[in-house]
Design a protein that fits this description.
Helices cover 56% and strands 11% of the residues. The chain is mainly alpha-helical. The strands form two sheets. The chain has a two-stranded antiparallel sheet. Helix 2 runs antiparallel to helix 4 and helix 2 crosses helix 5.
């Protein structure tokens, strides 16, 4: 949803048939941009973190959250976390911290809160696509 809300061109949403159950075979799903785009770096960062936050929220809402499952979400989100760190370095010459705030940088918890706020705002004005996702529970 944040792709659409930020004006990023969506090229592909892919969900593997086996949902990534085979170790080392790659991700269970991914989203790819549909070309070049220019958005504020904050939008890009929020989009990168939104998937991890959505998974965490869903597990909590379903009563499935455990520390072990949260760790799996973190590991599967490593690529997106690296994109956030790269974006901060390139756009703000800042470092990303995990559990602390580097001098002039950001703690990842702040990025999580910003992504949660962006997801909430996008869901509030989401239109048909979002309504469909809410009615069936997924896209």
């Amino acid at each position: 949803m944040l792709y659409f809300a930020s004006g990023m061109p969506l090229g592909e949403i892919y969900i593997c048939d086996d949902l990534g159950k085979t170790p080392g075979e790659g991700a269970a799903a991914w989203v790819k941009a549909g070309g070049k785009f220019s958005v504020p770096y904050e939008h890009c960062i929020a989009m990168c973190v939104a998937g991890e936050r959505a998974q965490d929220r869903w597990m909590r809402e379903q009563g499935l959250w455990t520390p072990e499952r949260a760790w799996v979400i973190e590991r599967l989100s490593a690529h997106d976390r690296n994109l956030v760190a790269e974006c901060l370095k390139e756009c703000r010459r800042a470092e990303l911290g995990f559990g602390y705030t580097p001098a002039g940088g950001l703690d990842f918890a702040v990025v999580h809160r910003a992504a949660d706020a962006a997801r909430y705002a996008a869901r509030s004005g989401q239109g048909l696509l979002g309504e469909t996702a809410q009615s069936v529970g997924h896209l």
